[in-house]
């Protein structure tokens, strides 16, 4: 059988957490797993992809004489919860997982987060492999070693840092994903340009259209560009604790909006949050108006996505969720990533998080 080209990248973590990218590379996964010592494999997947992706992968692993047990979890953001986490941990124990096992997470960000957190907690940490099946997870979520579940009041309130043994990113999986979800993933790519690289932002914007024709014509190439745009930011801060916090641009309001709306895709919510952050920056005299204009043009016209808060999310509701945000530092103000220009984040006294009085944030929310 002809070997499929395999692109090997690194997230900069120590010990290393390699990122393997390609188109049709799933056939190479058994050989790669066989390089590691383990007693059993446990393949965790979303219910919606069990027949389409998980069972064929399980058969491929079994044919290579690698023992594997398939476990499904219900998908949707509402299932990123303590209840589902507890269930998964108990099922892994009952199925025979040990300290020497490897857990495989096959799915989007919700499955990756839930499985990664379970792996981090089980026996104080067992190895897991991330196998993303969505554009958002493949180009963004798997590059962070942050695992979390939601609380009753907000997103990602409970979690830990637990890096995968490696990431196996096969863009062939993305061809079964809905186009609206591809757009959600592309918002995070747009964000990488906005916060770090104006030239990359312009190049990407030129490829984006509502039908995503240029993206689908070169899916592997576009995905590689997006991954590399984030890896440049993570290069010196792979755990996103210092400069790489700029990757949170748009996420504070975006997470609150996503949490409240329930069915709003993550990237779409982040795009709304980015436009809100630009409006805050304009009000504070930090962000030039043309930044907002460019954002709204790319997100609204080039991708056909909303750029304003949905009418069923009130400013008070959003503020209540923000008050329990996992990055919250003060009861009097919210820290936001703001832009000085396309490709340049505002430095507020040595930090990239600018304090914004709640009164200012509420005014901008009301106007949006």
UniProtKB/TrEMBL annotation:
Annotated keywords: Cobalt, Lyase, Metal-binding, NAD
Pfam families per record: DHQ_synthase (PF01761), DHQS_C (PF24621)
Enzyme class: lyase
Positions of the 3-dehydroquinate synthase C-terminal domain: 185-327
Cofactor: Co(2+); NAD(+)
InterPro entries: Dehydroquinate_synthase, DHQ_synth_fam, DHQS/DOIS_N, DHQS_C
Key word NAD present: yes
Name of the molecule in the record: 2-deoxy-scyllo-inosose synthase
Originating species: Streptomyces macrolidinus
